[in-house]
Amino acid sequence: MDQPAGDTAASPSGTDLRFEAIGHDFESQHGSVQALAGIDFAVNAGQFVAILGPSGCGKSTLLLLAAGLLAPSEGAVVVGGERVTKPFTDCGFVFQDASLLEWRTALRNILLQAEARGMDRGQAEGRARELMELTGISGFEDAYPTQLSGGMRQRVALCRALLHDPPVLFMDEPFGALDALTREQMVLDTQRIWMEGAKTVLFVTHDIGEAIVLADRVVVLGPRPGRILEIYDIALPRPRDMDALAEPRSIALQHKIRELLRAHGVFTQPGQFGSCPGNEGTSGL
Amino acid sequence: MSDSSSASGSRPGVHAPRSAPARPPNRADIEEAARSSIRGRIGKSVLDGLYPVLALAAAILLWAAIVAAFEPPAYMVPTPRRVASEFLNQWERLLTNMATTTRVALLGLFVSTVLGMTLGFAIAWWQPLRRVLLPPLIVTQSIPKIALAPLLVVWFGYGALPKTIVVIMVTIYPIVIACTTGVTGVPQSTMTLARSMGLRSFALFGKILLPASAPHLAGAFRIAASLALIGALIAEYVGSSNGIGVVLLMAIGTQNTALTFAAIVLCGLVGSFIYLGATAVTRLATLGLNPSYLGSHS
User: Fold this and answer.
1) B6 in contact with A at a CB cutoff of 8 Å?
2) ipTM entry
């Protein structure tokens, strides 16, 4: 798993990102819990990297560390050649729950980003409308979040994350709460927008197919403590769609990733006692 | 089942919510909907307003009939006519004392709102303060205020100050809790988002925490408003030189039941007005902060 040193001559709209021997512990009632251990990998400028793993493996924690919203217990995060020591605000965030403010219209939700950063209101509004056009939600500027479908809410969240043209985009299971067809559309749209803007994207997911279709590189994390099991480079030509998953080499890769996760106790059959906590309850059935 | 959303999508995959109109709602639509709902509400409220008046009239008639039928002694149950004439005889005394009590209730409610919101948001925001202040707050909330009122009279005399303090003690708790509930109810992801944008302190408060707390505060303020007059009366019962509570005590002491009834009815009226006023203020303030509140709650 040797990594090429991050390409420091960053492309205009992306920046590189390095995790250097990250370990992270959480304090809980039962003492210290190790959430992440020995996380060491680099994301080149403009690269789309998916972090794939089962729930509870510390994927989301990794994003908080990258954004400087959490200080790692060990190691360091380096963004654009600089070590992250305080909240790194030159980024955009998209969460699974869209996190829209229900008392603001779609447009004003997007403009929250501009207000927080003291951007020029007129310019920001122009850009917000462009982004809404780009993501296919123009016409819904004045709709409140409760009037929008899950996919549209997620598009508003994406526009908000892109408003200030950040060099890094952090996406935390952004399509996890959507129905399968909407999710597929969102995957295609995300790829299109990324191909146009070439930002660095760190994309947390628990969906193997989503990771393969979207990412240049898939980092597979194992559970408790979260650690890197393997890193795969995805060389499929772009633009990709879900049919790319039917190609022989991507089928082989999906199989490999499943095997890898199975070997670490992620999938267990009835009767098999895996190391996955939560299975104990089913043994009496 | 045909898919109605297929006609509205300008691009594949962008499907309108089932309940939404084929055309996306614009500002004019939303404003029109708001206006018509308000118009409907006014028309309905005139009708709704008639029912309590009718109920009240029926109650007074029933009261008069019972007194006429059973002829209880006047010191137990006076006739409505005697109550009315007592009110007309003593209207000046009743109204000036009611005004004193109302002033105390409103002043207490105002201070309680300002103090309660300050305290509530401070507690919600700053963990150490929460640990220090919340337990004593809960303990004092559990002490009956009527047990504390005599002490306040000993300390501060028979004026407005101890009464105002009792009103504050009675009304502040729901307001504090509304603030902490509102702030702790903001999802973790929203807070992370705010931090990633660099939203801090006052901007964070004004753009996220306060509007998120607005619906909780609206409910709490209405509860506080309905408790304010009760607080003021408690304090006056314990010790005061004036106020409607004092009039009530004297009326009971002299077996002037008609005057007692008159004072009670007056308290009911003023209490209702305070509550209605609080509701109106709440609606205005909440709509300003959190327009999504419109229509979703009544």
Assistant:
1) no
2) 0.80
Residues B125 and B264 reside in one and the same domain: yes
Say if B73 is an interface residue toward chain A (CB within 8 Å). no
How many interface pairs between A and B have CB atoms less than 8 angstroms apart? Answer: 101
Cβ A81 vs Cβ A10: under 8 Å: no
CA pair distance B207, A186, nearest whole angstrom: 29
Last residue of a domain, one of B71, B102, B131: B71
Closest Cβ–Cβ partner in A97, A137, A144 for B14: A137
For residues A75 and A93, give the distance between their C-alpha atoms in angstroms, rounded to a whole number. 23
A 10 A CB-CB count for B86 gives 21
Amino acid at B281: V
Mutate to test the interface with B, among A119, A149, A183, A187 (most CBs of B within 10 A): A149
Q: Does residue B292 belong to the interface with chain A, where contact is any CB pair within 8 Å?
A: yes
Residues 7-66 of B with CB under 8 A from A: 10-17, 20, 23-27, 30
Torsion sign over Cα B271, B272, B275, B278: negative
Residues B148 and B177 in one domain: yes
Check CB contact of A149 with chain B, cutoff 8 Å: yes
Residue A228, domain CATH: 3.40.50.300
* B70 at interface of A, judged by CB pairs closer than 8 A: no
Give chain A positions within 8 Å (CB) of B199.
Answer: 116
The gap from C-alpha A167 to its chain's centroid, in whole angstroms, comes to 14
- Residue B69, judged by CB atoms within 10 A of its CB (0-12, 13-18, 19+), counts as exposed
Domains in chain B, number:
2
Quickly list DSSP for A248-279: HHHHHHHHHHHHHHHHTTSS--TT---S-TT-
Of the candidates B13, B207, B296, the beta carbon closest to that of A185 is on B13
Q: Is residue B46 domain-shared with residue B112, that is, in the same domain?
A: no
Distance from CA of A140 to the nearest CA of B (A): 6
Gap from A142 CA to chain B (nearest CA, Å): 6
Tokens of A12: 């205009």
pLDDT at B165: 92
pLDDT tens for chain A, 285 residues: list them: 334 433 333 344 578 888 888 888 888 777 888 888 888 888 988 899 999 988 878 888 889 998 888 888 888 888 888 888 888 888 899 998 889 998 899 999 999 999 988 888 898 999 999 889 888 888 898 999 999 988 899 999 999 999 988 889 999 999 988 888 888 888 898 898 888 887 899 999 999 999 999 999 999 998 878 888 899 998 888 888 888 888 888 898 899 999 998 888 787 776 655 444 444 434 333
Tally the residues of chain A. 285
